[in-house]
Amino acid sequence: MAFVAGFVLDLFLGDPINWPHPIRWIGSLIGFTTRELLDRADRSLDTDSIHKRKRLYGLFLVIIVITISGGISFLLLFSAYTINTLLGVIIEAIMTYYCLASKSLYSESMKVFHALKNEGLDSGRRAVSMIVGRDTVNLDQNGVIKAAVETVAENTSDGVIAPMIYLAIGGPVLGFIYKAINTMDSMVGYKNDKYMDFGRIAAKLDDIANFIPARISALLMIISCLFLGSHYSFFSAIRIYARDRYNHSSPNSAHTESVCAGALGLRLAGPASYFGKTINKPFIGDNIRTIQLDDIKRANVLMFATAFLCQIICILILLLAI
Fold this sequence. Notes:
Elements: H1 2-13, H2 22-41, H3 47-83, H4 85-99, H5 102-118, H6 121-129, H7 141-188, H8 200-224, H9 234-244, H10 254-264, E1 268-269, E2 272-274, E3 277-279, E4 283-284, H11 294-321
Antiparallel strand pairs: 1-4, 2-3
Helix pairs in contact: 1-4, 2-3, 2-7, 3-4, 3-7, 4-7, 5-6, 5-7, 5-11, 6-7, 7-8, 7-10, 7-11, 8-9, 8-10, 8-11, 9-10
């Protein structure tokens, strides 16, 4: 009941900006802990010592964040169920809702759609800059659309399907532990001078946590193409996935992106600018047709179809396990 209710709450409520959100609290914990640990690591005058300390303190960050996130989740859930079963179900449903991001992903990407449609390119660039890490100031309209489609495709796994899988396995406790790992990677998992050593363990742990969910997400996304009509090619999704699923520096990120590219007949990824420097990434998919504004909507339809399919499968497995 809590698992289903949390999914429904996410579909209707999303992430209202003025509401308190535990994932933002986890982000604040990561930010505070990172500042304190990096400050300690940088006090060493020896370069080798700094690198070693950053790797060690990166491990401390992972332990601290996972322990606090999982521990508080467990205590809250245990206390609620101890008081009353109905209260426990309500709290578990709310915690489940906070772990999922399908409505939020839809809302943020559709802001790009409406900005481009109603206000023009500059507004579209500003909207897409809120959901991507690349430089957006020089993107043309097709580049803005492509960035939004890529965001929906990639985050179908780590924003929707992966947390859903972990919630089904271990409830909100495991769900929040996964979200903590994912948030750490997004905040410190960068390959730059500041985070190369410090964020290494967080990044590797995120790769491990998403390894199986990314592949399940891709499979469910391919199956979803069978039910979505002529805009989605089942066979092309399989072909591009088989060919391009490793066209990314991450072992997981290109799986759902390659399915989306194949399903919609688009060429995604490729060279992109980050902090003023162009990074030559491989392309994903074939340039069968020119990308269109409605492809943002189509990517979201594919995301929701994949989410519903995953939800149904998880519910069936949970019912069989009772």
